[in-house]
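ok trying this again, last paste got cut off
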Amino acid sequence: MGAGSVSDQARRSPAAALAAAPVAAPPAAHTAAYEAVVFDLDGTIVDSVELIIVSFQHAMREVLGREVTREESVAYVGRPLREQMMIFSPEHVDELVASYQEFNHREHDRMLTLYDGILSLLDRLQGSGVKLGLVTSKSRHTTQMAFDLTGIEGYFDATICADESPGNKPSPDPILLCLKRLEVSPGDAAYVGDSPADIQAARAAGVQAIGVTWGVFDADTLAAEKPGRLVHTISELAEVLGIEW
């Protein structure tokens, strides 16, 4: 007598039944677009725009006795503070930096907040196995102040602050150093920021440059730098990064 049909074997043996049954394909995993995502801090993760403006205006008023517009106050945001002050008055740079920092640190916890949705984005990126980095032109001290206030330090696998790499943004050096510490190649990474210096640094580093318009600079200013992507909301950023929202 020949071997029974598949259906006969299945009736006689539960194991055979399992083997004979068609196997449903597992749902496709949602894969993030990048192995690593590196963020700017001010104007990208934390809303510090008003704090930056009033701190700058305070320093100019106190040290130089002059009023500056909001536009002048943010014109060079994205670069280290000392570089910004050198543009306005090289001979008074130390006084300007000190005055800015005294006011900024005093008002920091009252005026700085996370952008709505950022925590959820960081959670989802981390949960998807994406390595997270931070490259900022803030000093290590003021970066730590932001970390202590918001509780986000633990999300980042590597953090590069001002003067911790051979060059500062718009140089690619801090982004490349961050990626070296993350052990990710530029072609597998994106940098997210809100300033021309951010986009210039990202392009020079060979990573995907993603500009966000909820920070200091408007869409036209950022678009002129030719970022790879320009986004206007956190949910749009999540989509670009390949994260379900």
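PB: full thing came through this time. The first strand starts at residue 36 and ends at 39.
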